[in-house]
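All the exercises in this workshop are built on plain-text protein records. A record pairs a protein's sequence with a compact description of its fold. The structure tokens are whole numbers drawn from a learned vocabulary of backbone shapes. Once this layout is familiar, the rest of the handout is easier to follow. An example says more than a description, so a record of this kind follows.
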Amino acid sequence: MKRILFIAFDQLNADAGVMKIARKETDHIVLIESQRMISGRQWHKQRLLFLISSARHFAKNLIEAGWTVTYLKSATTVEGLLEMRQKYPECELLCATPNSFRLKESLARLGVTFVENDFFLTSTATFTNWASGQKTFTMENFYRSQRKRLSILMNGTEPVGGAWNFDAENRLPPPKAHNWGEPLYFEFDDIDEQVRTELPENAWGNVDGKTWGTSRAEALGQMQNFFEYHFGEFGPYEDAMPSESWSAHHSLLSPYLNNGLLLASEVVAAAIVRFEQGDIPVSSCEGFIRQIIGWREYINGMYWYLGQDYRENNQLDARRDLLPLFRDPNATEMNCVRSVVSDVQERGWTHHIPRLMVLSNLALVTGVSPQAFLDWMREVFIDAADWVMVPNVIGMATHADGGLLMTKPYAAGGAYISKMGQFCKGCKYDPKQRTGDDACPFTTLYWDFLDRHAETFSKNHRMFQQMGGLRRLSNLAEVKQRAVQVLHGLESGQV
């Protein structure tokens, strides 16, 4: 009997998911371009182009390879599948287990048969077994267990290089006159151009150039470019925020991993092959591997383990609306924020440190609603799958879960941004100042944030040093007064 195999837009791989059980002679492949996915929010143009064009390229490649494929445009995914079921009522409907609670529930109600989701290296059962035995969900513990379980960068029972991580070596600020190289760009083809003409008018951001590949071949080209030109210096500068390079030495592979054009297993295997050539520092290889088999797998595991209601956490009672500057970089004179939001507006991406220590830090110390910030992050980042953003925003970025994932909030004043970035030079604000018109808003708001939540953080042993600093602050009253002015200015786009 012929089967209908549904492929979601984040499972675009001919060798994984439901395609692993596909039979070319009898199966009918279906992809559905959902109008709800396109127009339901103010998505970034780059994000929509990437997701839709990648799916159309994938469908085209399957057809050229001899598969029977239907590419449907429908109001919703469910409505598209109901249309297919009406056309082929005798066919069983299958797909790989979806990567989000919402889609999984919708397809389960429809009676879809799920097959194993192998787009991650860690099954839900394996992760649950690990998590259920932990007193605290420390990512480092999970990462070390992954290294052992997957036998990656191991010499028997010991880690290659003699250490489990090389964080101390991988936190260098951007050096002067460093050659960051050029990121790989792509050319629009006919499919890309067609998608670009169909983007909704209210979509946010720019789509003038093609920053992100939209085919398997282009994804492989991006991976090759990283291993050839950036892998060696990835480690030392993975936390650096240079003003002259938006990509630094980052791999730019997360979008392709998250929509299936690349598999975690093949990226890790390629990294090991390149490392074994002998000219890549172990700190760079380990730092890159950790992002994939450690952090990426951990975040996906915690998404499912913590449950669907986790996204509603707001333990710090943050209620402020999204600040105007998150949609309009010209609504602030803070050079770091303006630069980072401009990067996001241009490409739908910035690397993990600007996301955490500029954008998320600002949302945290200003008390922006975690759910409002989560919505924005989901809408504007090219790699923003639900499973990625919910734990990252609720647990790490805004500390809205009260410390379930991260034992302390990632709040920082202007000093950290000044150290790890090159934004402060030429900025009207001084990161060393807490008060006064030229005081860096991050510095002012950092101390105000600690004061607002002093009772909560005083019980946190990892916040002992910060709370001691707050108690020694001689001008706290002035800082709080300045914070009121800054918050008002940020809300009105005048800071």
Remarks:
- Residues 282-306 form the longest helix (25 residues).
- Residues 170 and 238 are 7 Å apart (CA to CA).
